[in-house]
TrEMBL record:
Name of the molecule in the record: AMP-dependent synthetase/ligase domain-containing protein
Keywords (A to Z) from UniProt: ATP-binding, Ligase, Nucleotide-binding
Organism: marine sediment metagenome
Xref: InterPro entries: AMP-dep_synth/lig_dom, ANL_N_sf
Family affiliation: Belongs to the ATP-dependent AMP-binding enzyme family.
Any GO BP annotation: long-chain fatty acid import into cell
Residues covered by the AMP-dependent synthetase/ligase domain: 67-302
UniProt-recorded Gene Ontology molecular function terms: ATP binding; long-chain fatty acid transmembrane transporter activity; long-chain fatty acid-CoA ligase activity
Any one of the GO CC terms: plasma membrane
Amino acid sequence: SGNRGYKSAWIYIPSKIYKSDDFPFQDNEEVIIEIEEGSITISKNDERSRILRNFGIENATLPRLLEIKAKTNRDQPFLYFKDECYSYQDINNNSNKLAHGILELANNLDLKAPKISLLMETCPEFIFTWFGIAKAGCVFIPIDTLLRAKLLEHILKDSDTEVLIIDYKFLRKYLKISKNLPKIKKVLIHNAPDDFNFENYHTNFMSIITSNTQNPKINMHNEDPIEILYSEGVTGKPKGVVFRNVLRAGIALGYELRGIGFDVASKIYCPMSLSSSTAHFFVVLPSIFYDKSLIITEDFNASTFWKEIH
């Protein structure tokens, strides 16, 4: 309606929807309404929403975020582990080296965007592998190292894992169940001893680390599946949740964490396992987006906790 050079429209929202606890808007809240190709999109216009909107939906993938931050932050430290330190550029380069190796492996195995499970202790290679899998356009499945063999088998079956990357110290656990997992085409072993006898089915993890530090040219959409995260299985077998837009969730949670000092912190200490969803959404992803440095440790140890903090 309107006859003074502008057009306005009333949008009727049934009370059943408006009164629902899931309805995201408040009375008199400022919103943005977009009409495109016959559909109407109503979105919030608060600060958090503006942060997400300004970043750009086309950039809202983990690979794209890594590439943007590698350019803007370059030599700024991102990851600390023991006496090691990796800059934002280092993280992107190491992830790219793995991504190209994963792409080559998938091609050799005739797999398209395979599901890749990771059973590895907390270390920089965990981060590189996670990001490398994402940059290769594959689906990442982190697995809790404390799981018993039967629950490990359940996750590998339920997720349709096709490639497994595993620390050597957990290999015996996997071998107990390997005959029940015919879908797994390749097992990459991390930290294998020098005298380990690799065969065709088992390959050295180091073999997929290439020298190519260029960003892979993979056409990814922000709604493509990127991770499957499993519950701890407290009330039954672990249940998997497919995540697509993990980045937007991490950005939003980082914004909410400002109240406890996230906005002024320069270093974030993470003593928890990197296989947990808490580490992903509350620590790693927000740290990247908000330009923080991340400190990781092999595991939580009460006797060394404060020493590591200092």
